[in-house]
Amino acid sequence: MARRWRGQPNVRYSSRYDGASMSEAMQSQSFDDLGVPGPMTRALALEGKVTAFPIQQDTLPDSLAGRDILGRGRTGSGKTLAFAIPMVARLASHGSGTRAAVEEFEREKNRIQRERASGRKPSRRMPHPRGLILAPTRELANQIDEVLAPLARAMRLTTVTVYGGVKQGQQVAGLNAGADIVVACPGRLEDLLRQNLLSLESVEVAVLDEADEMADMGFLPAVERLLAQISDRAQCLLFSATLDHGVDKLVKRFLHDPKIHSVDEATSPVALMTHHVFLTTRDGRFPLVCALAKGQGKRILFTRTKFQAEKLARRLRSHDIPATDLHGNLSQRQRDRNLALFTDGGVNVLVATDVAARGIDVSGVALVVHVDPPNDPKSFLHRSGRTARAGHAGDVVTLVMPDQRRGALRVLREAGIHVKPVSVREDSPEVGELVERVEREAEVWRRESEEALHAAEERAAEAKRQMRLDRHDDDTPAGMATGKASRRKERQPSGKAPNANGRNKRNKRRKKTSNAPRFVEDSSLAVNARGGRRVHRKPIRVVEDLRGEDAKRHDRQVAARVEFRRSPDRHKRGDATIAMAGRQ
Question: What ranges in 12-137 are assigned the alpha helix state H?
Answer without folding.
Answer: 21-25, 38-46, 54-64, 79-94, 99-117
